[in-house]
UniProtKB/TrEMBL annotation:
PANTHER family reported in the protein's UniProt record: C4-DICARBOXYLATE TRANSPORT SENSOR PROTEIN DCTB, SENSOR HISTIDINE KINASE
Key word Kinase present: yes
UniProt entry tagged with the keyword Kinase: yes
EC category name: transferase
Keyword set, alphabetical order: ATP-binding, Kinase, Nucleotide-binding, Phosphoprotein, Transferase, Two-component regulatory system
Catalytic activity from the UniProt record: ATP + protein L-histidine = ADP + protein N-phospho-L-histidine
Pfam families, per the entry: HATPase_c, HisKA, Phosphonate-bd
Histidine kinase domain ranges (all copies): 497-722
The protein's name: histidine kinase
InterPro entries: HATPase_C_sf (IPR036890), HATPase_dom (IPR003594), His_kinase_dom (IPR005467), HisK_dim/P_dom (IPR003661), HisK_dim/P_sf (IPR036097), Sig_transdc_His_kin-like_C (IPR004358)
EC number: 2.7.13.3
Species: Corallococcus caeni
């Protein structure tokens, strides 16, 4: 393979949150695309198993894998780039508990644990292996084990008291260093949790570059990714979705534990200070900050360690925190080795402990230069919901409104008042509860004379729905005109056949009425005079009246069938049995069938469908008329129209209409469902196009197969109606 401009597909495992990390993923993809000169598209795998299946099948160029997945796929990959955190491409797992309910290894028995996922290394496999190495079996040790899907959900479960402990990946086996990781997940709630046990280390997770990726692109990616945070660009925050500071090419599963490597890019500094600004603890993953070596800074004042320029803003922040007694944050610029950098600093009062002799303050300083350089695209992404011209809202799975942009409130002014009872919210929830398959048309809501087409996306962390509402009123009006034009066309095509069908009963109705009138005129005077009338004459008149009633009834049924086709469909669908509708369509075409083909039918039991009877009649008439018109009347003795209806293995309704006509060329077959595409003179070319729209509008499919000289097969597949129990439950 050679390099190309087609997108590089990267699949991520599903342990990320829903909002912040996804924005960072988009930023990371943009940065890679700019550096590669080729689009990089990132998507989230629904499960760890799905990611492995895609890797095994060779359907992705790149994937973010767990440590185990990297080890498993490394032999057949072009390269594996391990994540570097705090200067190391190995990591530990930390057992986390609540600070107000501390645990030890000896007190784990009977506790409840929240794991991330069965195949999560830091969130399950590594801590389980550690416990087993100590002779402890999780199945008997814990009273409850749950898999929650993401690190954040596991941490939240411990915070809420639903679980007693969880596991979180840890760059170093150091409780102080864990503060930054917990803060990145929980913000102000981070001090409520604490690590109490660390496992041995393992090679880190990372990016798997598969052999689907051309060698030239693989080498370019390796160069970009391994230099991304060590070339002075300061893009640590850009790689936030992975919580890494860089990548290194994998040394192999058997490599020894790495030691921290120096980093000249983005950095952060963590520590504890006293009220005078003296460093009680000071730590940096690279050992450097502000271009200076900060190792051995304990016991020294901040100014001595960092210099006047770097420490002055921090000391001002420290004094403000001491005066106010609460957290303080500050962002400032500093010239470091001739390069202007941007730093974000945070100082937080620490909870007092019995051994404290004075005030302790936590310090965290981060280099956010790379993030500030990306503010414009970040703000564009963040402002999308606010500035999106059409309604956009986010819902909880119970219908609770979490967010709605201004366009939503302008279009649906009663949304907040009605809440989950609002038709738009109800339609979105019903759509999600049904578990509609991919490709099924979006639901449409009719409100105050306007039609809104909904696009519903599932959110996982926290669970919810993101709903886009698009005003499709003009499109619906155009579709209605198109349907009407097709309906009139179909009625015109039916005129001859129906005329013949009506002429037969009408002829003998008129003949019988004329006979009865003549007989009544002949027998009128004898009846008035009270003379006896021959019994045979009365029986002939009664028989003629019976035939007349029968003929009139046939005419009535024909008119009813035509009214079914021509009437305006209702606003809401109903549960419709397919076979009677199909039978009615065949009855309408009975006269045409007699002159063109022999009918073969193969009907089996079928479930009902959610549809409109008029639209279904129009659909089947279009398909049957199309099939009949493909067959010449000169060959009527040999022509066959086959109509089959049955239930598929998936429980869907299938209707097949097959003719023995001329068939279609491959070029004509490719355009068969396009409006006005027809090979027949005096045809509007709307029938199959409208039929396709009707079927897809019902969530089904319409397929065509044809070969010249062999006829054409049209197959309709419609989803079965939702069972009543499910409908009630959805409401």
């Amino acid at each position: 393979m050679t390099a190309s401009n087609s997108p590089i597909r990267c699949l991520l495992y599903p342990s990320l949150g829903e909002i912040r990390e996804h924005v960072r993923v988009e930023l990371f993809a943009r940065a890679l695309s700019e550096r590669m000169g080729r689009p990089v598209v990132m998507s989230m795998a629904p499960t760890y198993e799905f990611l492995e299946a895609e890797l095994a099948a060779g359907r992705v160029e790149m994937a973010w894998g767990t440590a185990e997945q990297c080890n498993a796929f490394e032999p057949q990959a072009r390269a594996v780039l391990r994540a570097v955190r705090s200067g190391s491409w190995h990591y530990h797992s930390a057992f986390i508990c609540r600070a107000d309910a501390p645990l030890t290894l000896e007190t784990l028995s009977g506790k409840r644990v929240a794991w991330v996922a069965p195949r999560s290394t830091g969130g399950h496999l590594l801590p389980v292996r550690h416990l087993e190495s100590l002779g402890l079996r999780p199945d008997t040790l814990f009273s409850e084990q749950r898999f929650l899907g993401t690190y954040r959900k596991a941490l939240d479960a411990v915070l809420r008291g639903e679980s007693d402990l969880c596991a979180l990946f840890s760059n170093h086996s150091d409780a102080h260093a864990m503060r930054a990781t917990l803060t990145s997940y929980l913000g102000a709630d981070a001090p409520r949790l604490m690590p109490f046990l660390f496992t041995i280390s393992t090679l880190a997770d990372g990016l798997i570059l598969t052999k689907r990726l051309p060698e030239a692109d693989a080498q370019a990616l390796i160069s970009v990714l391994t230099r991304m945070n060590t070339d002075g660009a300061g893009l640590e925050m850009l790689m936030g979705p992975f919580r890494v500071e860089g990548f290194v090419r994998s040394p192999g599963p058997g490599a020894p534990v790495s030691s921290p490597r120096p980093s000249s890019g983005a950095e952060y500094l963590a520590g504890e200070l006293d009220a005078e600004g003296r460093c009680l603890r000071l730590w940096s993953p690279s050992g450097r900050a502000f271009g200076l070596d900060v190792r051995g800074g304990e016991g020294r004042k901040l100014e001595e360690v960092l210099g006047t320029a770097a420490s002055k803003p921090l000391m001002s922040l420290l004094q403000a925190v001491l005066r106010g007694g609460s957290d303080g944050r500050l962002e400032y610029r500093l010239n470091v080795n001739g390069d202007e950098r941007v730093y974000a600093a945070e100082i937080t009062p620490c909870a007092p402990s019995p051994e404290d002799t004075g005030v302790r303050l936590g310090l965290l300083v981060r280099d956010v230069s790379g993030l500030r350089a990306l503010e414009d695209p970040l703000y564009r992404l963040a402002s999308f919901p606010l500035l999106h011209p059409e309604p956009l809202l986010e819902l909880g799975m119970d219908g609770e409104l979490r967010y709605a942009n201004p366009a939503t409130h302008a279009a649906f002014q009663d949304l907040v008042e009605k809440g989950p009872e609002h038709p738009l919210v109800h339609a979105a929830l019903t759509w999600a509860w049904r578990g509609s398959p991919p490709g099924e048309p979006a639901p449409t809501v009719h409100l105050d004379g306007r039609y809104w087409e909904l696009t519903v996306a599932q959110l996982w962390d926290p669970p919810g729905l993101r709903v886009f509402a698009r005003d499709v009123t003009l499109r619906k009006q155009m579709e209605a005109r198109l349907f009407q034009a097709d309906r009139l066309s179909a009625l015109g095509s039916l005129a001859a056949a129906v005329g013949h069908e009506m002429n037969n009963p009408l002829a003998f109705v008129l003949a019988n009425l004329s006979f009865i009138r003549e007989e009544m005129d002949r027998l009128k005077q004898p009846l008035l005079d009270g003379e006896p009338v021959p019994r045979a004459d009365l029986e002939d008149m009664l028989e003629a009246l019976g035939e007349t009633v029968e003929g009139a009834t046939r005419l009535k049924h024909i008119v009813q069938d035509l009214r079914t086709l021509s009437r305006k469909p209702p606003e809401h669908r109903a549960r419709v049995a397919v076979q009677p509708v199909l039978e009615n369509a065949l009855k309408l075409l009975r006269g045409e069938l007699q002159h063109r083909a022999r009918l073969e039918r193969d009907f089996h039991d079928m479930p009902t469908v959610d549809a409109d009877e008029a639209r279904l009649t129009q659909l089947f008439l279009n398909l049957l008329l199309n099939a009949l018109q493909q067959m010449d009347t000169q060959d009527s003795a040999h022509n066959v129209l086959r109509v089959a209806a049955y239930t598929s293995e998936d429980g869907e309704v299938v209707v097949e209409v097959q003719d023995s006509g001329k068939g279609l060329s491959q070029d004509a077959l490719a355009h068969i469902f396009e409006p006005f595409a027809t090979a027949r003179p005096n045809s509007t070319g709307l029938g199959l196009s409208v039929s396709h729209t009707i079927v897809t509008g019902l969530g089904g499919t319409l397929r065509a197969e044809s070969r010249e000289g062999r006829g054409t097969l049209l197959t309709v597949t419609l989803p079965a109606a939702v069972p009543v129990a499910e409908s009630l439950r959805a409401c």
